[in-house]
Every structure is written in structure tokens, then in C-alpha cells.
Amino acid sequence: GALSNFKQIWLHPDLEWEQEVHTRLLWQEPGHFKWIPEHVKNGKLNNEAQLVHLCGHYAHQHTFLKWFWLVDIFEFLSVVAPTLNFAKVQQIAKDIKVKKSVVLTVALCDREFETNFSSLLPQGSSIDQQLLRQITPEFLNDPQRYRWKYFKIKHLIKDEFKESLMYDFFWLTRKFYGH
Q1: Are 65 and 80 a contacting pair, CB within 8 Å?
Q2: How many CB atoms lie within 10 A of CB 10?
Q3: Distance between CA 111 and CA 116 in Å, rounded?
Q4: How far apart are CA 56 and CA 6, in angstroms?
Q5: SS3 of the chain
Q6: pLDDT over 60 (residue 20)
Q7: Which residues pair with 53 in a beta bridge?
């Protein structure tokens, strides 16, 4: 299906592990978007691109599903925040339509770990306070327990509402038709 046509699961016949191989980091990357050499060096994302990927995966793609992913992002920011170019972070996030995810994830780190990372965001980066209030510590501990809230946040976290509808369409198509 369209939601997973950029990844394959490879199973080793003799070992008990699987490998998921992606041709894009996030499903919604526009077809014209390319990770340029400025974003990748020696096959590894630079810190700005890595932060965008981590936040996009955590918030946009999986709607805050795993608490330990937020801990990983906090630990990553704790190490690299002083050297990050947050204007570049915002530009990459805007290009792949995960800007809201990045800003809210940084704000969640501030709230949950008593940091001040959001002060490093470029001026004019607005945190959706109403959405941030919806993402309570209880929700973060078990998002799927709050099914209606999960569904609502899954749609509100997207940079564009049409993207939410597109995701729903592709998910339903895959669910009912197996494509």
C-alpha cells in the first residue's frame, strides 16, 4: 500500500530477527524531496536531519506511541542542542511537512524533562498550546488507552489536514483491500 510502499521487511531464514529497509525515512516525504549531501554524510544523517527524523517518526508517524522514543529524543537533544542549527531543523521539517511534530516534541521535552530546548527554536515558531495540553503525561504513558484522543491528536499533529485525510484513505484501503 501507499503507506508502506517505501519499506520492505526482510526475514533471515536461520535467525530470529527481521530487518526493515526503507527507501524514505518518512512515508509522507514529498516525491520531489531529496535528502541532500548537506543532510547526509557517510551514509549518516547530520544532527539537524536526525532530529527531524526522530520527531517525525515519534509524533507524526506514530502519534507519541512509545514513551522511550521521547526519552531518546530528550537524550539526543541533551547532547547536540547547543550545536544544532534550529533554522535548518525547521526548514527540513517544513520541507517534509513535519514542522508541527518537531515543535511539539521539543515542547514536550521541555515539559516532561524540565528543559528549555524550545527557546532554541527560531523566532516565530509557534507551539500549539491547545494541542500540547491534549498530550498529557497520562496520554504519553499509554496513548492507545485513550482511543478518541489518540485519533484526534493523530489528525491534529499533521501540518496539513488534507494529509490526515490522505493517511486515513490509504490506511482504510490497505485494511479492507490488503493493498
Answers
A1: no
A2: 9
A3: 9
A4: 16
A5: CCCCCCEEEEECCCCCCEEEEECCCCCCCCCCCCCCCCCEECCEECHHHHHHHHHHHHHHHCCCCCHHHHHHHHHHHHHHHHHCCHHHHHHHHHHCCCHHHHHHHHHHHHHHHCCCHHHHCCCCCCCCHHHHHHCCHHHHHCHHHCHHHHHHHHHHCCCCHHHHHHHHHHHHHHHHHCC
A6: no
A7: none
Bridge-based pairing state of the strands 18-22 and 44-45: unpaired
What is the CB-side half-sphere exposure of residue 23 using CA atoms within 13 A?
Answer: 9
Q: Is the pLDDT of residue 89 over 50?
A: yes
User: Is pTM beyond 0.90 here?
Assistant: no
Q: How many CB atoms lie within 10 A of CB 117?
A: 20
Q: Which residues pair with 19 in a beta bridge?
A: 10
